[in-house]
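Ticket #4471: structure export looks truncated?
Reporter: QA, pipeline team
Priority: medium

Steps to reproduce: submit the single chain below to the structure queue and open the exported record.
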Amino acid sequence: MDVKNKKRKKGESRVKIGVIGGLGRMGQEAIEAISNEADMEVTAVLDVYNVGETIKIGDKKYLVESEIKKVSSKVEVFLDLTGPKSVKKNAEIIIGLQKKLIIGATGLSESDIEDLTKKAEEKRTGVMIIPNFAIGAVLMMEFSQKAAKYFNETEIIEYHHPKKLDAPSGTAIKTAKLINEVKAKRGKLEGKELIEGARGAKMGDIDIHSIRLNGYVASQEVIFGAEGQTLKIRHDSINRKSFMPGIILAIQKIGEVRGVIYGLEKVL
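Actual output as written to the record:
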């Protein structure tokens, strides 16, 4: 079934969505947001907790299930909001079923993405890997790439809640990749680390610093330096509602995708 049109014609069925990790904070926000769309519906909620129970999310009740294959007949698009431990395995199952997949979970390596791309192309299905669903974060990355053409000194500081399982964040990795595509190589820095890791993790010649503290949801600051000046580009997600327009956009666009695309900017 074609899921690419933003609004379906009267009488047509709504896009059927399966949310994996549906009982997490992000999952519950996504379920409510999808349920508020006239042309979409959540037809499966999957999680490893409360399996077999009926859970109320928003003003609707959902049966919690755990097996992707068992719910696949009632799902057109899977939205994976789990984590590094399960995202690759989930993706392989969903691609094998020739279903559409939107991955909002982090933890995939370069080799994982290459492998999933090959599998998706073989199965003629579409996968989106979205490091950050916030439209503002996508713009922050784009603006950073533009600025990098004029500054060769760059550092990234990313801030997340302490329950985030991976560091650096997918957004920081994506930002560093975009910047490294265009920036001039940074000159050699003087000095040495008195404590290992004090200068952060390196990606190319960009230092990435990961902060994990209560009080944050997801924030990132990209700092550029040059003689006599600095430029800071920052985005803050104050709450998880900031990610919902991006999730809805991804669902609207997934029908146009073949193979794998990486980053929400590809469909903006």
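Status: closed, not a bug. The export was complete when the record was re-opened. Leaving a note from the reviewer for reference: DSSP finds seven helices and 13 strands in the chain.
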